[in-house]
Amino acid sequence: MKTRTALLLGSLSAALVAFALTSPRVVAADKVDPAADAKAFQNFFFQKFPNVKHEDFVNGPYSMNEDMRRQWQEKEEFPPYEFSLDAGKEMFSTPFKNGKTYADCFPNGGIGIRQNYPYFDEKEGKVVTLELALNRCREANGEAPYSYVKDEMASLTAYMAFTSRGKPFDIRIPDDPRALAAFENGKRYFYTRRGQMNFSCASCHVQSPGERIRAEILAPALGILNAMPIYRSEWSGMGTISRRFITCNSQTRAVPLEPQADEYRDVEYFLSYVANGLPISGPGARP
Amino acid sequence: MTSSIRVRATANGDITEVQALIQHPMDSGFVKNAKGELIPPHFIQELKFACNGKDVFVADWGPAVSKDPYVKFSFKGAKKGDDLKISWTDNKGASDETTAKIA
Questions:
Q1: Distance CA A262, CA B12 (A)
Q2: Among A51, A158, A208, B43, which is least packed by CB within 10 angstroms?
Q3: What is the pLDDT of residue A18?
Q4: What is the pLDDT of residue A4?
């Protein structure tokens, strides 16, 4: 494994390193250019997998492996996230104790807007994710916030994603130095090695998508958030974006952060932005 | 409360293919919760599919079956429009049933 990683690093990363590590923190002359980053990121995957249709990247490992794809298509006739999706629909339309609903907190009543999250809030100077917005909505209406990792939060986001299926990710980075800093910070988090295994997010999801990691097929980083939330057979249940980040960290034996920590929201901002133009496919199912 | 049973039955000539997904925790009784207490056993013991009053598939289940079980089988002798009745009973005496039309 070690030598293979080294080989991979040597052979494949020339291009990658060129664009991934051009953000040395000491050179201030480098301007943050999200649009160029997104283009480079997408082109890297499009060139690496010339046979995968662009909009198919959002189907993660199923776009990389014929056998898994067949199993998935059979599963999609009877998707495992259905119970959660129905529960989410019901929760979404059930008023809070004060008579208000989730629809009152969101533009367009919360329907078909998932592709606009996360967004940069210029008043607050921070990235606001859909999960965070949902809990803020609950708290503003006198309800206790939900856990960020599964169950109710996964059901709610599943329903909101479902109403946005097919709509392309449309993440904006306003011309605000704080927004650019958040994007840059997310990118840095994504490419920084950490934990006992010394893995970065990119070690798996940029260098080795389509490769096996034990019995699993690694998903490409491009479009990885489009399918969220997901039902993972490994969890025998649903999980949110927060849960995915936390388990990724613990699987590489790094210390996970708190759900919705600044770094997680920034990395969500980065990953969603570079997937701009690819359709929302959530809720998804993964092995 | 929606039914705990999802079912899809399609007749293809003489053969009817049935897929069902049942929402159930299927606790084996051997797993501990976060506090270290055993989660008491709670699993489906009998699952039945009956078509035109005749049982076509009966399963005696125990703690070894996973959460939210998925079942797929096919049988002969039904036609489009027939009723397929699905029912389960668990070890706590809870049960649920639903009827689906064969498409």
A1: 54
A2: A51
A3: 47
A4: 52
Closest C-alpha among A202, A209, A205 to residue A65: A209
**Under 8 Å between Cβ of A269 and A118:** yes
Encoded amino acid at B26, one letter: M
User: Is residue A17 predicted with pLDDT exceeding 50?
Assistant: no
For residues A162 and A160, give the distance between their C-alpha atoms in angstroms, rounded to a whole number.
5
CA distance A229 to chain B (A): 18
pLDDT at A22 over 80: no
The average pLDDT across A213-225 equals 92
pLDDT digits (tens, 9 = 90+) for A114-146: 999 999 999 999 999 999 999 999 999 999 999
CA of A69 vs chain B CAs: smallest distance (Å)? 19
Q: In whole angstroms, what is the distance from residue B99 CA to residue B75 CA? A: 17
Nearest-CB residue to B6 (from A78, A236, A237)? A78
Quick check: B66 and A236 CB within 8 A?
yes
Residues of B with CB under 8 A from a CB of A: 2, 6, 8, 19, 21, 23, 66-68, 70
Residue A67, chain B, CB below 8 Å: the answer is: no
